Every structure is written in structure tokens, then in C-alpha cells.
Amino acid sequence: MWIWEAATMLPSQALLPAVVFALTALQALASDTFTAAVYEHAVILPDLTNEPVSPSEALALMNKNMDVLEGAIKEAAQQGAHIIVTPEDGIYGWRFTRESIYPYLEDIPDPAVNWIPCTDPSRFGPAPVQERLSCLARNNSIYVVANIGDKKPCDSRDPNCPGDGRYQYNTDVVFDTQGKLVARYHKYNLFRGETQFNYPKEAEAVTFETPFGKFGIFTCFDILFYEPAVVLVDKMQVDTVLFPTAWMNVLPFLTAIEFHSAWAMGIRVNLLSANTHNTSKAMTGSGLFTPEGPATYHYDSATEEGRLLLAELSAHPRLSPTYPPAINWSLYATSIRKFPGESNTFSGAVRRDIFTFSELRHKDGNYTVCQGDLCCHLVYQMSNKSEDEVYVLGAFDGLHGSVIKYHWQICSLLKCPSTDLSTCGQPVETAQTRFEMFSLSGTFGTSYVFPEVLYSGVQLAPGEFKVLRDGRLKSMNGTSKPLITATLFGRLYEKDQPHPPRISL
């Protein structure tokens, strides 16, 4: 029905999107803020098969998901949102081989072609998904961000052309309030299970201008790497990053809300994070994150329901009077003598990474733990230490990962699952111990450090901690809830191993 309605729009109705867009643009220009939305979507998945379905079956599944997204887009627009981000894999899911995903792919052109699929749907061949997304943006006068699959033919003249004669890319698209395609991004850092897609030949730094700031975009696993994530912020100077993701939560440091909020604070930019929702895959956690902390967020591991989030954000956060200063992450830690504690260290695994830990044996104290070039310093005081709970200070300085290896430096105050020290580093979601204060710092060899504080029940702690200019992560007035972890997560991008082969044959 949506196609028929667009095709039979009366002349007066056709002018409506342009009028609304003009009014929206004037409102945005008159303000230093804008309203952003993200939608955490419980994706309707295809049946598991190695054989391709027909194009009509593929489109039927994608329309089921877009029916849900349409409701979220309309609601966001009605609440005044200027832009909405939907998740990675949000239109067709993730149960695919290279062959079985092919019916779900469309040819997505370079935005330089100046194309509005809603009004010219067949210009580049069949594109029903792009057409519908374009119409949703146009008819609701809102920027729409979605994740779909791109296909590009190739032949023997290209020595890297895959054997099936095409490249397949995990792709983000952005349509403006007129329905025009204004951005296309091919995911550069594929997660280990994404064998259905190819690596693009080069990392893409995709940006676009709006009446409410400069935007960049990348996808999920990309956030952990220099290209394109840091390039967009440091070199392209974007105000806001759009972030479709299908993020599987990994405690203690890499739950979605925990790391994405910390990344926005550490790199000092807005991040609009839309996650898929699937509890069997530990996928949940979306939010609107700012340099000052989360504006709003959602984490739900108990139900299978989607969630729409909206918040008013600064359009140009670098110009905001509350914009946080640059941090010298090693200044304090390199200026003091080591605290005691190194003689009582032990090794423990956080997944495959071997940390150096020291148990916090007393209700208060000062500790230092070192590994490699990193020394972590902690000053703390517990308010109600539970006898059956153990906390440790941990340090890690080394390469992480299997297919892609990248360098972490981590200082962490974290709770162990039990009093058995061999369990330290394993996931834990609940705690009973509160802290009167803590101050965590480290001798980091990087300026890219992301501050995390996670409370019992996998909840953030907005407004309850601060980062001083000398690199100390400090609680402000104690912890209002029991603490799971306080962590400084550093990335030494220059020590990463080379990007894997860019072409998956």
C-alpha cells in the first residue's frame, strides 16, 4: 500500500514533505540542539538454510521487518525526531552463507548520483528496500539510517574478483528528509562470522552535512579500530556518529551500553547506537551517548521486545560549554610512586586475555598492578564489603583477538564471580558491595582511553563519576548501587596487526 500511496500522491500532498523539511531545517538552524532517535529491533529472522530463497520470499521477510521499523520511524517523527538509527542486520537478520544472502542484496549506488528512490525507484534496477526506506524518510520528514546488503558485479579483469563474480558488502545507508540517498558505507572491519560479505578494498570515511551538524557513520565492530572510527572524529571532525550494530554483550568490559557510552566520552563525540535485540545471542543495549555521558539508554535481557529511544542532543558538542577537556591519560599515574600490591599478584583470564590481578583484601587501601608497559593504580574505600564477594585490580597490556588482532591496555577494578580467585575475570552481572570512593589511573601509552563504570544489573552510572585532566577515573559521591567494574579501556592502534585480507574469495 505504501507504494500505491506514493504513486497517487496529489500535487498539494507532494509539496508537504518539502514544506515540512523547510520548517524542520529552520527550527534546527535556530537551535544548537536536535532530537535523535534509535530503535532497538527484535529482528524477524529467516529460516536457517544454505540454499537461496526466491527474491519474492526474501522481500517478504524484509517487508515484515520494515513493517516494524516503519512504526518506530513514524513514532519518532511524531515525537519530533530529526534522525533515527536502526540496527545492523535489522532488515534481514544474520543466518546466511555467501550464497543464501544473495536474494536479499540490492545494488546501492554512490550517493553522488543524486537519487531519490521513492520517486525514481527503477533508475538503478530493482531496489524495493531502498525505495521503501526512502519513502519512509520522505513521507515522515526524518533522516532514516538503515543497514542492508550491497552487491557489485566484477569480472576477470579484476584480479581480486570473487569466484561468483560479485562483491557483497555489509552496508549502511542514510536517506534525508526528501528521501534522497545521502550516505553509503561499506563495513570495513568484519566480525569473524561475516563470511557472507567481502572486505572493501579501502576503509571509507563517510560523512554528510545536515542543518543540525556534521555526521559520520560506521558499523558495529568498526568502533574498536582506528579506521574508520577515529579517522571520522579526529580528522573529519564529525559532531555525531551513527552506529548501527548487532552487538553481543561480553562482560566485564564489552557490554554494548558500557563500551559505547565510554567510547563517546573518551573520544568526545555524540554516538547514536542502535542494537539488534535477541536474548539468545546476548544482543541488547542501545543508547544516545554524548561526551558528557548517556542521554538515555536501554538494556533488556529478559524480554524479546524492541524499544524506541529519543533524546535532545547538542548539534555541535565541541562548542558546548559543558564539552569535556582533553585528558592526559598517564599524567597522574606516571607522577606517583607505585603503591604496594605487586608481590601478591596472580594471573587470570578474561576470555582469552591473561590479566595480572591483585585481590583487594581490605575494606580500603592503595594498590598497584603492572603488566608490560602498563601500571594501574587504585585508591578505594568500600562502604559495605560483603564477606562473600571478592574484588580485584587488574592490568592487561597486549594483543586481543583471533582473526583480527588489536592492542589493548586495560586497568580495571572488577568483581569476581565467587571467592575462588580462579574465577576472577569471568562474567558477573550482580553485586552487593558499594564503594565510598575509588580513583583509578594507569600509565597508558595512548591518548585513546575509554572510561567505564558498570553497576549491578548491567546499569550505567551517569553523573556518578568524573575523569580528571590528569587521567584519574574518580567516583564523585560514592556509588549509589553495587559495583561490577570501573575500567579504563585503552587502545594502542599503532600496535595493531595489519588488517586481514581485504577481499574474501
What does this structure look like?
It holds the Pfam family CN_hydrolase. The strands form four sheets. A seven-stranded antiparallel beta sheet has the order 13-14-17-18-24-20-21. Strands 5-4-3-2-1-12 form a six-stranded mixed beta sheet. A hairpin with a 5-residue loop joins strand 17 and strand 18 (406-415). It is built from seven helices and 24 strands. 16% of the residues lie in helices and 32% in strands. The protein has 505 residues and is of the alpha+beta class.
Report the helical percentage.
10-25%
**Overall mean confidence score, pLDDT:** 92
Class per helix and strand makeup: alpha+beta
Distance between the termini: 40 Å
Individual helix count:
7
Rounded radius of gyration (Å): 24 Å
Summarize the biggest pleated sheet.
Answer: 7 strands, antiparallel
As laid out across the biggest beta sheet, the strand order is 13-14-17-18-24-20-21
* Uncertain runs: 1-16, 22-30
- What is the total tally of β strands? 24
Tell me the strand percentage band: 25-35%
Organism: Cyanoderma ruficeps (rufous-capped babbler)
Family: Belongs to the carbon-nitrogen hydrolase superfamily. BTD/VNN family.
GO molecular function: pantetheine hydrolase activity
Signal peptide: 1-30
